[in-house]
Amino acid sequence: MLGRGCAATKHFLSLTNIVAVFLLRLNPVTSHSSQHASAEPPADEMSALVALFNQGQYAVVESKIKVLIARFPRSGFCYKTVGAVFRQQGKLPEALNAMRQAAMLLPNDAVAQHNLAILLKQQGYFVEAEASYKKVLAHDSQFIPAQLGLGQVLQAQKKFQAAELNYRQALKIKPDSLEVFNRLAELFAEQGDWRAGLRLANQYVKAVNSPEAKSFFVKCVTRAQLTQVNDETLANILRGLDEPWCNPGELTPMGATLVKNDVVIQPMVGKIVQAWPKRLPANELFDTTGLNCLANNALLKAMLVSAAICDIALERLLTTIRKVLLDLASVYPISSAPSNAELDFYCALARQCFINEYVYDCANDEFVRVNALRDEMIAALEQNLDIPAMQLVAVATYFPLNRLPNSERLLQRAWSDVLMEMLIPLVSEPAEERQLRTTVSQLTTIEGEVSLAVQNMYEENPYPRWVKRFFAIAPATLNDLLSSHFPIPFQPLDKERDIEVLVAGCGTGQHSISTALKFKNAHVLAIDLSLSSLSYAKRKSQERGITNVDYAQADIMKLGELKRSFDVIESGGVLHHLADPWAGWRILLSLLRPGGVMCIALYSEMARCDVVRGRELIAQRGYASTLEGIRQCRQELMEAVALEGFARLMTANDFYSASNCRDLLFHVQEHRMTLLQINTFLQENNLVLLGFQEAPETLSAYKKRFPNDPAATNLEQWHIFETENPYTFIRMYQFWLQKRK
After folding, report:
1. What local confidence, expressed as pLDDT, does residue 31 receive?
2. Out of 43, 145, 251, 372, which residue is the most buried by the measure of CB atoms under 10 Å away?
3. Cα 591 to chain center, whole Å?
């Protein structure tokens, strides 16, 4: 997702304010009023220029201001104005020259010094910018924009301690300032001081409670490498999973570490891992308190219902507990059930198994026993007989309830609240998706061996399965989003009209929902091959009240038939699954309007070397891309985790659910690219690279390696950087482009 608004733009004093300052300075009571009056144009002429500027008539203002400068060669207003015009036109060197002149003519004018400092900072003149900011603060030490600007130029010069002191001074002035917290957060992030960042993040969330604060907390807590946390941090982790503050899968690896270090759970995990693949019975697992040590762990329960748990040891713990549940299901009669806390935990385990699509290993004896329980349930549903609660939950940990005959009848029974809460995602929501399938229109035919194979794969396994995640809720214009995220000049789109956006390959809706929410006045067409994915996406969109997305089934290779064009096209992780990715990319380009922008994500040849090894192993062993084949493959890889080439696969969240693992290792069609290939394609197709959508740490490391490329858009140098750091693009190359007019 693109970043927040540019502080430099926000703090550059507007032309209206510049005129207001000058009108104040022309007040006869000031000691130098006659001198200023003779140096500056009449107030009505200044106001007329402001009106033209606000109408966007920059060329007219530039022409008129040149005439005024000839009449008033020592006019600070004139140089400020022409500097503002040049800045709006993207002529930053010219803007800087004009603002230097304004600051020289008005050495005691804080406005001139501040605007000069911003331009100096933008163009990398940090020492001069530092001096200008200090002049502003000498005039007004409480002016937070200057405090922040000074902190940024100190940070750019690697004067981290001084920058932190400056930001903290600003925080004293305004303790609840979102922007000051943001700057401090970026400072700690640049230094990689995640523990100090986490202390700030807890304070940040408490003081501001903004999306930025929550995002920073997630970034810090997932990078701080903690084995224990205090109560405040744990409370925020639980909030982060529940609300949520991110994709909950970001928090589960760190959460797994904390759970495994629980003083009661740790020895249990140790016994299970040592005994594996044997499933230990309850009497060897639990003390006299039974399941309570797990049932009372708030973090584990929150993780179970939020995202697939991405940890081998906890997976084996939960696989063993599932077997304990199966044993219990034959003990409890219809009229009884375990304690509420235990039942709540088992229901959460069932939801976890549904989330990971039953990817856990299943021994032969378990399979026979749970099949018998499932057959009993099917008969009970058919004959309207009672079903014990424990039997329902046990079957739900091994099989998707929504695929049972007459599964909708489960929703008509009088279950306890905790059981009904389990049945909503397991039965009710899939039923809703089946109904929504009939409402999805088809824009193109789907033909070709590869397209049909990929469609079939995603009909069986929609990707990615997700429960909830945080989405940005402060939409911005496309121009503002691009200018805030990328330093390179771009051709702005018409600000007055709505924009048309195509999401080519929307999957299960995370991408399309994010796009619909981040752009102001956007109409989104989201397409995919898979009706299963589209119905999932449509349900999730309706769940959030999204009304500006239309979902349709279509094949990218057939989109040329649409006879439509778009301002923005986004295609993330899709083109590399086509028979010919480059041909598919060119088809998308044919739909992009001149001056339009495109966001593309592609697999990296270097970063996926471990995936390639995994795919080679699968081919050697002959594992089928079925649920059982995926289970068997995962177990072998887990046992071979210490072998070179496989350990990194265990760190991929996609490894821990069936659909995602199939997409990761069993995909029917996968291409991988290099940056040099992409560079050639951009040159051949008249495209401008605006920049990568990468973590700040990655961009900072690249700029340190290649200081001659501050915009970070030289793909040949990025290729060198990736060669030196081959896992840089482990998630994919993700970048924004503009089609030249």
Report:
1. 32
2. 251
3. 26
